[in-house]
Design goal:
Blueprint lengths: L1 E8 L5 H10 L1 H6 L3 E10 L8 E12 L7 H9 L3 E14 L20 E9 L4 H6 L1 H9 L4 E10 L3 E8 L2 H10 L1 H12 L3 E13 L1
Antiparallel strand pairs: 1-3, 1-4, 2-3, 2-6, 4-8, 5-7, 5-8, 6-7
Helix pairs in contact: 6-7
């Protein structure tokens, strides 16, 4: 399985082209051979879940059975609008949960022996009853993640504002990532609350080897 996440930044005054692309890109992705799953998403401004969208930055997630390139129309569009792209080639190695009711990255083990540089995708569909509680904790978690040992970068991505949200982050090692996720008191407490108070109707947590960026 081959996973590609493209984070695309449009020049000033061309954010509208990114917004329009979310409709136009559906057609070449639907027609792309070997593409088993895809998502077109907006981004938040502060590197994680964020109520304020970044109108210049957009994301495309592609999951293929065999190596292939992003559809030609999409790459042509990006070149025409002189976008700045960061493209991550990823190999899913462990995780759990569903996205749109599917195991989009295959039947993964919950744990693996891999301990090197790692990318993490955490996404959730937030219940209406859990929205207030969820968003009340976002800013504090984001500020602590940005200064956590081993943290490299992150971006908040989402399909539906406020409700269907995800964070993609990269860490120097699994050990340092786990220290933030499970040892930091605030983050540990929030994880506990999501289960106790049932904030999500669906969630997914996946870790990847970063093959290329």
């Amino acid at each position: 399985m081959y996973v590609r996440l493209s984070i695309v930044v449009y020049p000033n005054w061309f954010g509208w082209a990114g917004f329009l692309s979310m409709a136009l890109f559906r057609f070449p992705l639907w027609l792309s051979s070997g593409l088993r799953f895809w998502k077109l998403m907006g981004t938040g401004k502060n590197g994680t879940f964020d109520k304020n969208p970044d109108w210049k930055r957009w994301a495309v997630l592609e999951v293929y059975d065999t190596p292939t390139t992003t559809p030609t129309f999409i790459t042509w569009w990006w070149k025409m609008f002189k976008t700045t792209n960061t493209v991550y080639q990823l190999e899913p190695i462990e995780g759990h949960g569903l996205w749109d009711g599917k195991q989009v990255f295959g039947d993964l083990p919950k744990q693996s022996d891999y301990e090197g540089k790692i990318a993490v995708l955490t996404r959730a569909t937030i219940k209406l009853s859990g929205l207030k509680r969820f968003w009340a904790h976002v800013d504090a978690i984001a500020s602590q993640m940005a200064t956590a040992p081993g943290f490299i970068t992150s971006v908040g991505i989402g399909e539906v504002p406020f409700i269907k949200q995800a964070t993609f982050s990269i860490w120097e090692s699994k050990e340092l990532m786990r220290s933030f996720a499970y040892k930091l008191p605030l983050h540990k407490e929030v994880i506990k609350k999501t289960h106790q108070e049932k904030w999500y109707s669906e969630d997914m947590f996946t870790r990847f080897k970063v093959i290329e960026d």
